Amino acid sequence: MSETVSFGYEEVDAGEKEQRVGAVFSSVARKYDVMNDAMSAGMHRLWKDKFVRRVKPREGEQILDMAGGTGDIAFRMEKHGASITVSDINQDMLDVGIERAMERGIDGLVWSRQNAEELSFPARFFDAYTIAFGIRNVTHIDKALAEAFRVLKYGGRFFCLEFSTTEWPGFKEVYDSYSHKLVPKIGQMIAGDADSYRYLIESIRRFPPMPEFEAMIRNAGFRHTKVEPIMGGLVAIHSGWKV
After folding, report:
1. How far apart are alpha carbons 76 and 161 in whole angstroms?
2. Which residues make Cβ contacts (< 8 Å) with residue 159, sequence separation at least 6?
3. What are the sequence ranges of the domains in the chain?
């Protein structure tokens, strides 16, 4: 029997998920950052700022920003002097990021189309690996984590910013209602695509809870793992070290 994986609330063939996720992000690429502002009331900018402060990019470091698409994380890290490789499986997202970099006069980034499960980079090449709001869209999360571990140098650090499940009493119910009922409508109004945003919300619900995902990071070989919940766990920063 063929392997099935989650695509939102659906169960689909593992080989089908990559294509369907690709179609989602190709559809929303041009409006992705506008939609992030609309869905989070601009708070995603604060989350990303905090995330980069935790990464502490340094001059001379090689950092891989996986699922970096439109460049939001890379632009924040580049100003600290690190050499950033921005990778994404979706060329449409990368194209938007390249255009944004040109508009900002940023020409020192490397842009590389990559599958997080099968990176073409050599082992022990990067000082840090970052992935923000991308790992839940990977077909096999364990393979992506194994690749992150492989391409990091010893002493390298892994940082992941991802939605999770808020533990604040009362807020969870309000957020669930907002996300399921309003976000697809906002997606239709702004991006002309309700279905893609319905999937993005469903993919958040299907993502492992914080303790389970931290265990997956440890199982990939990382040590000194840590979870930092934001807004009670609505968003979380996961980290680990290759030692």
Report:
1. 14
2. 51, 54, 55, 128, 129, 130, 131, 237, 238, 239
3. 4-241
- Is residue 87 a contact partner of residue 98, using CB atoms and an 8 Å limit? no
Q: Consult the annotation and say whether 36 binds a ligand.
A: no
What CA–CA distance (Å, rounded) separates 20 from 13? 11
Per-residue model confidence (pLDDT) at position 2: 63
88 is in an annotated binding site: yes
CATH topology of domain 4-241: Rossmann fold (3.40.50)
Tell me whether residue 85 is annotated as binding: no
Cα(72)–Cα(49) distance, rounded to whole angstroms? 10
Q: What angle do CA 141, 24, 232 make, to 5 degrees?
A: 55
Per-residue pLDDT, 176 = 78
Residue 23's alpha-carbon distances to 92, 133, 163, 193, 207, in angstroms, are 10, 17, 21, 11, 20
Residue 46: the pLDDT is: 95
Alpha carbon distance 62, 124 (integer Å): 11
Residue 1's pLDDT is 55
* Per-block mean pLDDT, blocks of 10 residues, the chain (243 long): 76 85 84 77 92 97 96 96 96 95 96 97 98 94 98 98 86 78 83 82 88 97 97 94 98
The region, left, alpha or beta by phi > 0 then psi within -120 to 50, assigned to residue 89 is alpha
Show Cβ contacts of residue 56 under 8 Å, excluding neighbours closer than 6 positions.
none
Residue pair 238/159 in contact (Cβ under 8 Å)? The answer is yes
Residue 13 assigned to a binding site:
no
List the structure tokens of 94. Answer: 């990368």
